[in-house]
Design goal:
Blueprint: E1 3-7, H1 14-28, E2 31-38, H2 44-52, E3 55-60, H3 63-71, E4 76-82, H4 95-101, E5 108-111, E6 123-127, H5 132-147, E7 151-158, H6 171-185, E8 193-199, H7 202-213, E9 217-222, H8 232-240, E10 245-249
Parallel strand pairs: 1-2, 1-4, 2-3, 4-5, 6-7, 6-9, 7-8, 9-10
Antiparallel strand pairs: 5-10
Helix pairs in contact: 1-2, 3-4, 7-8
């Protein structure tokens, strides 16, 4: 049986992490199991898990090592964990979160603290830069969302250099370009899929579009490197997003 693993701790993200895991499991037709790496003899995670009707496994040890080990179970199809320790820093997430997401080769949802995830995921925002590697990585997720009847918002952000010259005055040419873009980068039928186009900087615009559209989840493909000069879009989205961000590793 496939499982979504929710890594919960004692901070404010515990309840949002569980809620996100339950909503994601419903999408993936999976069950939810929660994990708490025990550092103090407190019962908050157990109370949260019981209230959500979710099984809790408590272990001791180094949080990163224990979470990574649990996520590597073949039955685990996705991991959900909280984003913490980022306020007033230049880091996109807490050290534990960063260490985990750069080591797990499965989808990982990062949940901002204090967010209020919906009970059901109905609308996802999927930024597509137009590169084959990232498009292929996101294809399974988009297909699954389509089969489940979710509203899929595909976002493509142009730079001034890539904006088609006809885009502001030739509607038929613009529509043809949009259909060709979707056909080139998606294997999914285009019903229930809306292509949104913006002119700007992806790292700045994704969070704004998610807020404007009321998306429940942002889905990003990434190379799992947060080294200097890498994954600016992922870093900025994690730092500023008010909704969960599902990271899909590029093989």
């Amino acid at each position: 049986m496939t499982t979504v693993l929710a890594a919960i701790d004692l901070n404010a993200s515990g309840q949002p992490v569980l809620s996100t895991a339950i909503a994601l499991a419903d999408l993936l037709d999976a069950t939810v199991t929660s994990l708490h790496v025990r550092e103090q003899a407190l019962s908050t995670p157990l109370k949260l898990a019981r209230a959500a009707g979710v099984e809790l496994h408590e272990v001791s040890g180094a949080p990163v090592e224990q979470i990574v080990a649990a996520a590597q179970d073949p039955d685990v199809v996705a991991l959900v964990l909280g984003q913490s320790g980022v306020h007033g820093t230049a880091y996109p997430a807490g050290h534990t979160t960063i260490d985990v997401i750069t080591r797990i080769t499965k989808p990982v949802a990062v949940v901002p603290p204090h967010t209020q995830p919906p009970q059901q995921i109905n609308k996802i925002l999927v930024p597509l830069e137009g590169a084959n590697e990232s498009s292929h990585a996101l294809d399974d997720t988009i297909n699954l969302a389509h089969r489940r009847g979710l509203e899929v918002l595909v976002l493509h952000i142009h730079s001034p250099a890539t904006l088609p010259a006809f885009s502001d005055h030739e509607p038929h040419a613009t529509l043809a370009w949009e259909q060709e873009f979707l056909t080139r980068h998606l294997t999914t039928p285009h019903d229930h899929i809306t292509l949104l186009r913006r002119l700007g900087v992806p790292a700045d615009d994704i969070v704004a579009v998610a807020r404007e559209t009321g998306a429940d989840l942002t889905v990003l493909a990434w190379s799992q490197s947060l080294a200097s000069g890498h994954a600016r879009v992922v870093s900025e989205t994690l730092m500023h997003s008010a909704i969960p961000v599902l990271l899909i590793p590029i093989p």
